[in-house]
Write a structure and sequence with these properties.
The chain has about 900 residues and is mainly β. The protein contains 9 helices and 51 strands. Strand 7 and strand 8 form a beta hairpin. Helix 1 packs across helix 7 and helix 3 crosses helix 5.
């Protein structure tokens, strides 16, 4: 057992050790690796709350919060500095998280250990760290926008009926326990003909409760009840049903209770569950008599007009369901194998995750970004907009809907205090000593739960009316045209979009040159290259990190000026066509809380003609260090001046942005030719890429070569960017690959050398992302190598276990055979049962501080110290090591004293029947 506050520790832990008899050793790090260190404590040991547990191939890095960490949708991640170590598994206590250290190479430094969730660092209590936060002045809400001509938040003419169905559960690949098929249906009364169907999927939340206690298990333990998260969208369902939609909200507790082990966070499983329900609805539409009563009593659902609504991980789930409905996944990983008898017209994604960063480019989407999201706080759902650019035809509208002052949970009434059946909470953690100027309750910008839910209902209805009903009058509410829906008042809701009838993009992700400013990297560890430095007060949804330390092609144009008038020229690699466009639409980020940033906009064509289009004004969002408020505002300038000047709008060579403000900073995400309208979307035939994971044994001899499993299905060809992650450095090598169905275009090999000496397993990872004309299903795969050699046994015998004070107590450890890694054992202090016990003033004070963080005064028995252990390590390739306890001469006459240690188990507790180390210290006087 390796405890906190050691000078250095190895990436392994103690197993059985028997004093004087054979036992098992603990796997430590290889001798050629640097010591695993942290800089969190002055003595260089692991920070409080961290330890290493397990042994051999089961070694784990463990973090325990001082308070339960609420179960949410964002992953809890372990980092060493800026390097992602992996995604730990949560314990049942809600406080303990364990990372299998096969995910992190043993040669890697565990320096500057951090816990992050949703892009934010957590403190010892499992909350967003506000210790370095600066008090901000009261934030001002954005100006109220003019009302749109149509308000989709107004209830329709139909009364509604509500009921539930509960079918036999289904088994999904990778999930040991069956998953429920349960849902609540809200339908219009008296509606004739077939009606469009809206399906809701909730996100990741605790699964079960009893009184004030909550659980994340599945099935629910005896004495607890399932949390009805699926009933949290009844208000949204009732609004849509009043407007003529059949709605169904499905339960996914069975996935939430098991998805911690899924490499994709459960995205494929949620897709399978959604399509299982859609298949039942297709059956019932074809044979109404077979439907449950609640379905039979409503109008027939029109499966050719389906809207999917997903919250948090449910958002990623419905995105995958839309993908899988167009481009089927590999059968082995899918939980639905029937025909697709539905047409998904669009998706609404509420505070969604997108761990794979694999949006579906050809299905329209509206992504709601909660400005005070304390769960998915990096607002990574922006990738559902930015990540579609250039991937396919660009006809589908992809909208980002930023709701100022909204948290993550309150879009679901069953996650809202005072409305929920089970315990619920505000996910934006409130620190009484560090109130947030934007998101603390009672501020001018923070919404109440009812205000937030009303805004959510309104914009879900807006997406339904545009994507399913085809009413283009609601498009200005979603596409950055600067209109508001009065039903959502007093919420301030801002939007921007890509796709639809935009054309001719100035995209920093492609070939481009910039003068007067610079192309910055969205994700890069270098402060000189990154768009936002690590010391930035806040973060940007556009710059959400993925599985790599840097990404090729994700860029923005950075502008910074101290005087007005110096133009920044943006020149794409090929001329841009703005033919047929009415305006030039730009998405521009400015710092939060800033006002009055003005930029002059000019165009130059390939003939050298130049026209100044006019100025745009951009204000920042309300923001603090805890919000993701570096978010692009969409601004437009008419192209009329370019037409009058005779520019050839089909051949534009460059775009100039000239600051009019005295000083400032801005980032251009993109610029497009814009005109009104929402075109029909037809998904093209595309190749789909899915990576797999191969698990192999190391073997006893020879070198074997294994290939990372890759499946390319679908039709046509497309480009993807492949990243091969280095398990030692944390870096990556990238390659642009053209893929074809059934081809071997992606070929990543891993060489495995076999031997008969014990060592660690290793994990080699590969990730992939679509670039053009392709879709990505399972974005992550690789080869997991399991060591198949037994761990050496160890014997421990006394060397000098009876000494005069000032001399060390010593015990010898001997391995049965050498290993290819350092091996160690640990022993925890026990109270002495017979006679005086060695005290804190009988041992070296520096040793005491390094091992326990304690001072000698006041004098007290060693067994009273919580974190005192003895450690011994046998270096790689060697057989012997010593365990020592240094004593000092204290010049005080005292009786003979003794000390006892016992072998610890994997949890750092005394192991039953474990070895006992006894030591006796004689007085020197």
């Amino acid at each position: 057992m390796i405890r906190a506050r050691r000078i250095w520790v190895t990436a392994a832990t103690v197993l059985a050790v028997a004093g004087g008899s054979p036992g098992l050793a603990q796997a430590a790090q290889p001798s050629d690796a640097r010591p695993i260190t942290t800089t969190a404590d002055s003595d260089g040991g692991l920070p409080p709350g961290w330890r290493i547990a397990g042994g051999g191939g089961d070694r784990q890095l463990v973090w325990r919060s001082t308070k339960p960490v609420p179960m949410g949708d964002a992953r809890v991640d372990f980092y060493a500095g800026d390097r992602l170590l992996g995604h730990p598994a949560p314990g049942k206590d809600g406080r303990t998280f364990r990372l299998d250290l096969q995910q992190a190479d043993p040669k890697a430094d565990l320096t500057d250990l951090q816990v992050r969730s949703g892009g934010r660092e957590l403190n010892a209590a499992g909350r967003v760290d506000t210790s370095n936060g600066k008090r901000s002045a009261a934030a001002t809400p954005p100006a109220r926008l003019p009302a749109n001509s149509v308000d989709p938040g107004k209830p329709g003419s139909y009364r509604t009926s509500t009921g539930e169905y509960d079918l036999d559960p289904v088994t999904l690949p990778g999930f040991p326990e069956p998953v429920e098929m349960k849902a609540v249906v809200v339908a219009p009364k008296g509606a004739t003909g077939k009606r469009p169907l809206a399906l809701f999927l909730h996100g990741r939340h605790p699964t079960c409760y009893a009184g004030d206690d909550i659980e994340g298990d599945w099935p629910c333990p005896q004495g607890t009840k399932p949390i009805p998260s699926y009933r949290g969208y009844l208000a949204d369902q009732q609004l849509l049903a009043s407007q003529g939609y059949v709605t169904v909200s499905i339960s996914a507790n069975g996935i939430n209770g098991q998805d911690w082990a899924a490499e994709d966070g459960g995205a494929q499983a949620r897709s399978s569950l959604v399509r299982q329900h859609l298949a039942r609805w297709a059956d019932w539409a074809a044979n109404p008599a077979s439907a449950p009563a609640v379905v039979r009593n409503g109008p027939k659902a029109d499966l050719s007009r389906v809207l999917l609504v997903g919250h948090s991980r449910g958002g990623e789930g419905v995105n995958r369901a839309a993908m899988d409905s167009l481009y089927p996944p590999p059968a082995a990983q899918d939980g639905y194998h029937g025909p697709v008898r539905w047409h998904i017209r669009g998706t609404v994604l509420i505070g969604p995750t997108i761990f794979g960063q694999n949006p579906v480019a050809d299905v329209p989407s509206a992504t709601i970004l909660p400005g005070c999201d304390g769960d998915v706080s990096d607002l990574q759902g922006e990738v559902y907009v930015d990540g579609t650019r250039g991937v396919s035809r660009g006809a589908a509208l992809h909208s980002a809907v930023y709701v100022v002052g909204a948290d993550h949970n309150f879009f679901n009434s069953e996650w809202t205090p005072g409305q929920a059946e089970a315990p619920a909470w505000d996910d934006f953690f409130e620190d009484p000593d560090q109130r947030d100027a934007v998101c603390s309750p009672g501020t001018a910008t923070r919404l109440t739960a009812d205000q937030q839910h009303k805004a959510g209902s309104t914009y879900i209805a807006a997406a339904a009316r545009l994507f399913v009903a085809g009413d283009d009058r609601v498009r200005p509410l979603l596409d950055g045209s600067g209109k508001r829906a009065p039903s959502a008042d007093p919420a301030r809701v801002l939007t921007h979009a890509v796709g639809a009838k935009r054309a001719g993009g100035f995209l920093p992700d492609g070939k481009m040159s910039v003068t007067g400013g610079k192309l910055c990297a969205v994700v890069d560890p270098s402060p000189a290259k990154a768009c936002l430095g690590a010391d930035t007060n806040g973060s940007s949804p556009h710059f959400a990190q993925w599985d790599t330390t840097h990404e090729v092609g994700r860029r923005a144009v950075a502008l910074k000026w101290s005087a007005a008038g110096s133009a920044v020229k943006v020149r794409p690699g090929a001329p841009v066509s703005l033919g047929g466009a009415k305006d030039l639409s730009l998405r521009v980020i400015v710092p939060p809380n800033s006002t009055g940033t003005r930029l002059g906009v000019s165009l130059t064509d390939t003939h050298g003609k130049r026209a100044t289009l006019g100025d745009v004004k951009v204000d920042g969002l309300p923001g603090t260090e805890r919000t993701s408020s570096y978010w692009a505002r969409e601004v437009r300038v008419p192209l009329a001046a370019a037409t009058r000047a005779g520019l050839d709008l089909k051949h534009i060579k460059s775009l100039d942005l000239t600051p009019r403000s005295r000083s400032g900073q801005a980032w251009l995400m993109d610029a497009w030719g814009w005109r009104s309208g929402t075109p029909a979307v037809t998904a093209p035939a595309l190749p789909r890429v899915d990576l797999g994971r191969l698990t192999v044994k190391e073997g006893d001899s020879g070198v074997r070569t294994y290939k990372v499993p890759v499946q390319v299905s679908g039709r046509g060809s497309g480009q993807v960017r492949l990243y091969v992650l280095d398990p030692v450095t944390g870096g990556e090598k990238e390659q642009l690959v053209t893929v074809h169905p059934g081809g071997n275009d992606i070929n990543v090999s891993v060489k495995v050398a076999g031997n008969t000496r014990f060592s660690y397993g290793t994990q080699d990872d590969v990730v992939v992302k679509a670039v053009r004309g392709a879709v990505i299903g399972a974005h992550r795969g690789g080869v997991l190598v399991e060591d198949d050699d037994p761990m050496p046994s160890v014997t421990v015998t006394p060397v000098t276990d009876r000494v005069t004070e000032g001399q060390p107590l010593r015990w010898k450890m001997t391995l049965s055979e050498p290993a290819d890694v350092d091996l160690g054992v640990s022993f925890g202090i026990l109270p002495v049962t017979d006679g005086p016990e060695l005290s804190t003033k009988d041992v070296d004070p520096q040793w005491l501080a390094e091992n326990t963080g304690e001072e000698p005064d006041p004098e007290r028995p060693l067994s009273s110290l919580q974190y005192l252990s003895l450690f011994g390590y046998v270096p790689t390739g060697e057989l012997n090591a010593e365990v020592t306890l240094p004593t000092i001469t204290d010049h005080v006459t005292e009786p003979t004293e003794s000390v006892r240690f016992q072998q610890l188990n994997d949890n750092g507790e005394p192991q039953e029947g474990g070895a006992i180390l006894n030591g006796t210290v004689l007085d020197a006087s």
